[in-house]
Amino acid sequence: MTTTSYSSLPSDVADRLRGIELPDPLGFGRLMAPVMSIAYHRDGAWETPRLTGLDPLPLAPHTQALHYGQAIFEGMKAYRNLGTAFPGSPSMLFRPYEHARRFNRSATRLGMPELDERVFVHALEELVTALEPLVPGQQGQSLYLRPTMFGSTADLSVVPSTEFCFLVLATPSDAFFTAPISAWIERHYSRAGAGGTGAVKAAGNYAASFAAAAPLRENGFHQLLWLDAVEHTHLEEFTAMNVFVRRGERLVTPPLSDTILAGITRDSLLGLGPSLGLRMDEEPINVHELTDAIRAGEDIEVFGCGTGAVVAPVELIGDESGLRLPLPARSTALRLRETLLDIQHGLTSAPEGWQWPVNALPDTPQA
Ligand SMILES: Cc1ncc(COP(=O)(O)O)c(C=O)c1O
C-alpha cells in the first residue's frame, strides 16, 4: 500500500486515517471508513458538509426518523482510475449528478429538503479524496458510498421533521455478487404500489422486504424478484437491482413507473447495449411467459443490475411452490458487466458526466 501524508486534512480526520489498511478479503461493509461527511439542515438551510469521525450520533429516543421512517439514501461508488484520460485523479465517481438528482427526488417524495446537487457531489469528492488509500485497486472493487438523509427532530407528533441530518458513509468493497445468483419470485408480498414510494430510495422500502426475504434465505437463494402489486404477473425488479431479460438479440427491461426505481445502472445499460449489437426494449415482462420459455429451452438470459452488483447473471429461478428453473450460463450479462466496469475504471471513454474524476490532495503520491 502507498503511504499518504494527510497534512492538508483537518488533523482529527488525518489521525483517524493514519495506518489504516484494506481488509483481505475486502468483502462488503467489513471495514467502515473511520471518516464520514455530515451536515444538518436547521432553520430552513443546510450547513456546509464537513468531514468528521465515524462516531455514534447524538439521537433522542423520540427522533422522528426512528418512529416514522423519514429517511432516504443513495448507493454509489468511487472506482480506482485505471485509465490515462484523467491523470492526477486516482479515483472517479460514476454518474454522481444522476445520484444527486435521484437523492433529491427521494427527499421530495418524503417531504424532506433538497440538497444542492453541487453540494452533494462536492461532499462526495471531499470524502473520496480523504479516503484515497481506501479506494481498492482491482477491477470490480470500489469504495462504496452511502449518502443518507433522515429527519432528526426529536418529536413524537406525526408531522414531518423540521431538522434533517445528511451523512455520507464509505466502505471499501468487492462487487456485491461476484458469482451468478439465484432469484426467488415473490408471489405473495409486494414491494411497491401505485402512488407509493417504490420509485425512490426510501429506507422503509427495504425494511418492508425483510420478512418476505426469510423463505429466500431458508432456501439458499440470493435475491427476491418482485412482481407487480395488482396482478402478481409482471416482473418489477429485484430488492436492490433492476431486472433485464435477453431473448435472442433483444434485451428487455420493465418500463419505469412509480413502482420501479430508476436505476442508474439500468439507464447506463440501455445506453450501452446498442454498441454491443443488442436491441434494447422497455416493455412489461410476463412471469408466466418467461418461465414457460425457459422450460421450453429458449435462448434466454436473466440478470440483475445495480450499483452494488454491477451486473449479476441469474443461474436459478425458484419460488415457494417448489419451482426450480436452472438457466444455462450465457455471455451477454458478462459482456455488459465488463463494458460497464471498463468505463467505471476509466479504461474506455463514456458519455459526458459518467466518469467524474476526483482529484488527489496535493501531497498524495501518484501511482
Ligand atoms: C430497489 C432498487 N432497484 C434498483 C437498484 C439499482 O439502482 P442503481 O443502478 O442506481 O444502483 C437499486 C439500487 O440502488 C435498488 O435499491
Using the coordinates shown, work out and report the CATH topology of the largest domain: D-amino Acid Aminotransferase, Chain A, domain 1
| CATH class designation of the largest domain | Alpha Beta
Q: Which band does the percent of strand residues land in?
A: 25-35%
Bound molecule types: pyridoxal-5'-phosphate
Largest sheet: 9 strands, antiparallel
Helix content: 10-25%
DSSP summary: helix tally: 9
Shape: globular
- List SSEs in N-to-C order: HEEEHEEEHHEEEHHEEEEHEHEEEHE
- The total number of structural domains is 2
The CA-CA distance between the termini, in Å, is 11 Å
Give the oligomeric state: single chain
Give average pLDDT, whole number. 94
Structural class category: alpha+beta
CATH architectural group of the largest domain: 2-Layer Sandwich
Description:
The protein has 367 residues and is of the alpha+beta class. The chain folds into two domains: 178 residues, Aminotransferase class 4, branched-chain amino acid transferase, N-terminal domain (D-amino Acid Aminotransferase, Chain A, domain 1, 2-Layer Sandwich), CATH 3.30.470; 148 residues, D-amino Acid Aminotransferase, subunit A, domain 2 (D-amino Acid Aminotransferase, Chain A, domain 2). Helices cover 23% and strands 27% of the residues. It contains nine helices and 18 strands. The strands form two sheets. Strands 1, 2, 3, 4, 5, 6, 7, 8 and 18 form a nine-stranded antiparallel β-sheet that branches. β12 and β13 form a beta hairpin. α3 crosses α4. The longest helix is centred in the first third of the chain and has 14 residues. The chain is globular. It starts with 10 loop residues before the first helix and ends in a 9-residue tail after the last strand. The structure holds pyridoxal-5'-phosphate (PLP).
